[in-house]
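FIELD: query
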Amino acid sequence: MEELEEEVPYIVPRARVYRLGSFSLTSGSDTLFDYTNTSYDTYNAFNLISDAYISPETGFYQVIAQYCITAEDQDFFQIEIMINGSLYASKSFTASRFTNTFAVSITDIVNTTVGDIIAISAYSFNSIDASRTVFSGPEYSFFTISKLF
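FIELD: result
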């Protein structure tokens, strides 16, 4: 008798936005990430003016966000998931002396109710107090969200 493998359901993407046009991230400041373009948005729930996803349904969502940035030895970077203006999750990275381009990313699962506002924030710090350039393009700086259940 042949065993049947359990089918894993496909998770439908909800929204993916990205940044076109590079910009500077100032050292020592927390900045709401500015997205300029939409790859797709199943529920038209991402607002490019406020740079936030407004949850259309209560449930668990997978959030993936990334930005690529120029970096030098010991530069410190952080990426944060904000829900309703409060920090939900963050991940930090420190560049090494062999780095000149650096990817800062986070993946997490968030539990939201209808109307919750999900946004991505970025933080940078370096000892010479210089701005660092965030790279442009859908492959470098993006935010994607999918409803799990």
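FIELD: remark
The chain has one domain: 13-147.
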